[in-house]
Amino acid sequence: MPSTPVLWQFRMSHFNEKARWALDWKGIPHVRRSLLPALHVPRILWMTGQKSVPVLVLDGKAIADSTRIIEALERLRPDPPLYPPEGPARRRALELEEFLDEELGPHARRVFFHEILPHTDYAAALMSVGEGNLVRRLYRAAFPVVRQVMKVDMRIDADSAARSRAKVETALDRIAAERQPSGYLVGDSFTVADLTAAALLFPILLPGEFPYPFPGPLPDAAERLRERLRQHPACDWAAAMYRRHRGRASMEVAA
After folding, report:
1. Cis link prior to 84 (omega < 30° from 0)?
2. In the Cβ-directed half-sphere of 199, how many Cα atoms lie within 13 Å?
3. Which CATH architecture has domain 6-76?
4. Would the pTM count as exceeding 0.90?
5. What percent of the chain has pLDDT over 70?
6. Residue range 175-185: average pLDDT?
């Protein structure tokens, strides 16, 4: 009998939300193993030879990267589909997924971390949501070192954040331009393109359908940034995708 899939994740990560949403959408029971940013590296490096999550362990094989995870889930359980049928629609959906993964996801992460990381108490609380009190206190104590590791690893500074903010705005423009008469980005139904766009925008949306409690209020600069970006029509569209398609019951199961 196949083993239960295991998702190694950060709770507060948009790429991890992309993988979680796909698992829930497919109705696939799975175990979630949550890690703390920066402290996750040795385990994930040992498992995969790289250091990024999400990682899905499926039938004993570790699959890194949200795009590869969804590809594997489509093979495992084609229905309900996230890929359109073979042909131009599928190519367009996958091209949009790649664009969003490269031109929205990393840049949204950088602009928000630039505003959040200086606020030690908030940032440590955000990244340790769901952990016990002792772990949260220890992570808070270690956070000045964690912050420096994250800033170096993701090349976060004022100049890179400004460039990334422009990238996020360009990606929002493209999402708005790609919407079809159906309300979806490709064809007449929800696809991987819609899921990717909405999941990668969750830090701007802070939707009620997100599966973990988001600590608040945000630091002032981060909230101003969020409010500015939230005014874009693409964010209203993404919030609608959350309301319409993220409400399925979580398929997380106990280990």
Report:
1. no
2. 30
3. 3-Layer(aba) Sandwich (3.40)
4. yes
5. 99
6. 97
Joined together, the tokens standing for residue 73 give 């889930």
Residue type, 36: L
101's tokens = 């993964």
CATH of 88-245, one of 2.60.40, 1.10.287, 3.30.1340, 1.20.1050: 1.20.1050
CA dist 181 to 60, 187, 190, 191, 193, Å?
A: 42, 9, 13, 15, 15
**CATH 1.20.1050 domain position(s) in the chain:** 88-245
By the 8 A CB rule, do 174 and 196 touch? no
Confidence of residue 249 (pLDDT cuts 50, 70, 90): confident
Calpha distance 134→137 (Å, rounded) = 5
| Polymer length in residues for the chain | 255
What does DSSP say about strands 31-34 and 55-58: parallel, antiparallel, or unpaired? unpaired
Give residue 199's Cα distance to chain centre.
5
Range 189-208 average pLDDT = 97
Adjacent-strand bridge partners of 30: 252
